[in-house]
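Both lines are quoted verbatim for reference:

——
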Amino acid sequence: MQRFSLCTSTNNTLTYPSLLFSSIRNHISQGSHKCALLLYKQTSREGLYDPSVVPLLFKACVSLSILHHVKALHAESVKAGSHCDVFIGTALVGTYSKCGLLGDSRKVFDTMPDRNVVTWNAMIGGYLRAGDKESVSSMFEAMPGKTPVSWSQMIDGFARNGDTAAARRLFNKVLDEAKNVVTWTVMVDGYARNGDMEAAREIFEQMPMRNCFVWSSMICGYCKKGSVEEAGVIFERVPERNVEIWNSMIAGHVQNGFGEKALQLFEEMNGEGFEPDEFTVVSVLSACSQLGLLDAGKEIHNMIKKRGMRLSPFVVSGLVDMYAKCGDLANARLVFEASESIEKNIICWNAMISGFAINGKFHEVLECFGRLEESNIKPDSITCLIVLSACAHGGLVNEALEVAAKMERYGIEIGIRHYGCIVDLLGRAGRLKKAYDLIMRMPMKPNEAVFGALLGACRIHSDVQMAEQVMKLIGASTVSSSDSLNVLLFKNFFVDNGNDIPEDNERYARRVESFDEEATDVDQQALLPSVRDPKLWMVKCMIGRERETAVCLMQKYIDKGAELQIRSAIALDHLKNYIYVEADKEAHAIKGLRNIYGASKITLVPIREMTDVLSVESKAIDLARDTWVRMKIGTYKGDLAKVVDVDNVRQRVTVKLIPRIDLQALANKLEGREVVKKKAFVPPPRFLNVDEARELHIRVEHRRDAYGERFDAIGGMMFKDGFLYKTVSIKSINALNVKPTLNELENFRKPGESGDSDVASLSTLFANRKKGHFMKGDAVIVVKGDLNKLKGWVEKVDEDNVHIRPELKGLPKTLAVNERELCKYFEPGNHVKVVTGAQEGATGMVVKVEQHVLILLSNQQKNIDMEMSSLQIRVFADDFVESSEVTTGITKIGDYELRDLVLLDNMDFGVIIRVESEAFQVLKGTADRPEVALVKLREIKCKIEKKINAQDNAMNTVSVKDVVRVVEGPCHGKSGPVEHIYRGFLFIYDRHHLEHAGFICARACSCLVVGGSRSSGDRNGDAYSRFRGLRTPPRIPQSPRRFSRGGPPID
């Protein structure tokens, strides 16, 4: 074997062994594997060889996936006679196994004269990576002198392959004295990696001592499962934090979409004096891209420069991704091109290609992909997916097909997502037959995205025949999740084209009714805007003038109307320096932006991002403890639940509800027995009986939450007092207008609980009251607070308070009480009407009062032989108003129903106030005195449905739904909303008017408007008058830089 000797060279070639070793080691440690191999190649030409360098060179070859260099180094080692060296042999065993050549690895292992524990571990590790459990088990049994490292490697290997049961068996075999902190850590990490956090927590709590890795594993495991709050609990328990633990916490929040919290943690980390590394930087940059915080991303970039941090490929890809997603493509490209000294890996290239794609630069995507091909880096499946997606949205059919052909040349398997992009591309281009043929030739079964893409294309091109073929193909396929979404597309397609759904496809249409789950991103692909929809353009404007620019466009549209050819203008609060304009063509957007100072640089928004920009979010729900809600999805859809805890930061809520659990099926599942699924079977709501569960051998554990509350835990579900406690997303509950029925509240009451506790909790129902619930004269009772059980009458209603005149003497004349502390009050003998809830419209007499529940003797039954109980209705007192109206149970005859405005044969007119078996009672349009006529069906000429306005006593315009007060005539002082207007007469509904079903007829000139219309845009007839302050001058549109006469514009 050739040995080094001290020598020099005239051409300054490195020849000193120590210097050679040091240089190669430095290159490899810095990630410059290619430079290390080039340096060794230069020295090998001079016949120099050092066996200590070979293991490091093997590591460089593995990172670059250069197999021929591995074999060349192996040959040199054999030639030099050093292949028998245990260190080089061990390195060869590990290198071949990492390259997937287990046969060559085993040959080297078998021919080695000497082996140590590391050699055995290297061979076992190769089998573990390949998933060969039989070979690895036999080799481990034959291994002499097993060490804790060997046991840890086996446990970790089986866990990584998903076999946590085998890993646990190995863990249990390790003697207690041989278990070190690493053994415990790999077992915890194995459970956490596979999502079994309960088992991971069990092992974690048993550990005699813990290191930073196990803390990090627990945090990562909880974050991966979406339980960020549990990760926070673990994080707070860490005795000594390091950078790795901070990185786990920051990355976990980013992965779960909590970018703001991640940035807050980053600030805390800096405040505690920790120096961020490249993993920290990548996570924080990802948070900036999530939130669109370009300025924050630039600050991170400046910090990297100031601290002299090494720009690794991961940092470069993070910077490129951040700049691209924030819309600053110039800086993204600058970072990518300026990092020539760094060996860009495929992740960097993918980030740059994706940046071009999400900014609509489809030709630049192909150009960058061509540059990647010219380099020595091989594209991967993600690269091809990005390019195919860009071609699909850019309409580049031929280019996409070329990329698909190159995938076979590169040895990249074409997956289902690649096929989905190609089908989508062919469909949008109108090549539906080719797209269909491609689906038929696919080596795997099509999924919902593939079918949805073709159905969406059929809808775009109005190809009914192809749509029917696709639906038949879906029916023959075993795809389960495609049914609802794609059938919905199918139905919409036929409705849009004015066709009836074919009879043989009715069975698909029925499936839509059961669709209630949130669609995934893949499912939404078929619902993206098409080429026929208006496009979205991103327009650069002056910073701080985004809203003014958008308002300026709105003003121009008001003045010019359809001539502007712009659909909408959007200014987002979090996006500075840009607005969005919706228009069919770029020329339309440019024309609309003329004469608006500061608007320039127009860019097309990719189709995939349009839905994010134009998405409409519902108003934030203000939830509080004890609020009644209903579940929106899943087994408990429609069930009543009560809020226990609210986490507004993470948008999660904990509710308690009555369980729907089949204990026998649960017992079978927990014991591993096969459970026969009953079609569409939902267990009835029933309180959990812990003793009954134990009789079925169901394991019931006792646990405490973060507040110390004790719960019964069964299979990951938490129970207390028979209720199920669930933590769900706020989006999965409905808190608007939730009105529990009496039966629901009685069922919700715990067994043996009295009804007294319901009285205070009734106030949680009052949050859904409509405005104007209380009116002057209402009898009320205070249900909570210091004035509890005080009765009185409403005198005045403010925004949140109700002023009542108390019944007791000695108190002030009026008291202000919060409306949530009041409930209506009635006494036996009162005649009332139900105005809200399931019994709405029912009338009758109060026969009994049970706290805040009235028992009503209904008027809707005429058969006096029926039992008294069948005539009684139990309703909350808050849902009644006092009324003299009597209902018969009939509300409609023919085409006419209660409260309709009708014209009679004698040209009289009036409102139907009562429907009897064969006739109507009609309140006629007379002003002197109320006149009610009994009218038969044949005497009605027609229904009056015209929207007519009138003028009140002050010459104000009166419209339907305006609130008016009668100032003249026999009904002086009455007030209420206008229901109908005809021939100068107003039909006003006053629920305190005990006659004529609450209707009053008065002349418009005898009334005065006291409340605005809820339907008309403007009282004086100008639909755009509410924008009067936003109007532009007739010739020159106002510019964001042009100040109005009153001073500078107000943001």
